[in-house]
């Protein structure tokens, strides 16, 4: 974050779509910063069980020191995502998305009069269209070419973009170099 000019202490709210490791295991270093360097309060919004899941993740990350030393320093609030709400002054709505057996929570986040839609992992089903409809920007996963279990393919992402021409799309969660036709690190791909 520092390399990109983002102040990790300035982040007031984190929205979690689901609890898979590739979406949560990057949080402990961020929390470490918030415990020892910048103790401003932070809010985590996520699916049912968000507090229990994250507190367990912190405990696994630091063992008994979490509860004894670190937790008293960490100013966190946990909110179970509702259909609509406000967290740390940020207004949001949710859409339940399809992602394997776990499912996912998509967010429509209102920022400076604009709507940012964020899917996390999802299959290309009707709720995804609902999420991105009339959003100014949509950050949506597009894992790779062909059939991708419980995720969206590049082909489905291109169709989604065509159905919503007024929305600017940023696709993430892409395979990198492991599948024929996959992108290289930080490569921009036009769909």
Describe this structure in words.
- The protein is 27% helix and 25% strand.
- By secondary structure, it is an alpha/beta fold.
- The protein folds into two domains: 1-81, no CATH class; 83-173, Ribonuclease Z/Hydroxyacylglutathione hydrolase-like (Metallo-beta-lactamase, Chain A, 4-Layer Sandwich), CATH 3.60.15.10.
- The strands form two sheets. The chain has a six-stranded mixed sheet. A three-stranded parallel sheet has the order 1-2-3, with no helix packed on it.
Break the fold down into its secondary structure elements and pairings.
Blueprint: E1 13-15, H1 21-24, H2 27-36, E2 42-46, H3 50-62, H4 64-70, E3 76-80, E4 84-87, E5 90-97, E6 104-111, E7 114-118, H5 126-132, E8 137-141, H6 154-163, E9 168-172
Parallel strand pairs: 1-2, 2-3, 7-8, 8-9
Antiparallel strand pairs: 4-5, 5-6, 6-7
- Helix-strand string: EHHEHHEEEEEHEHE
Strand content: 25-35%
* Helix content bin: 25-40%
| CATH secondary-structure class of the largest domain | Alpha Beta
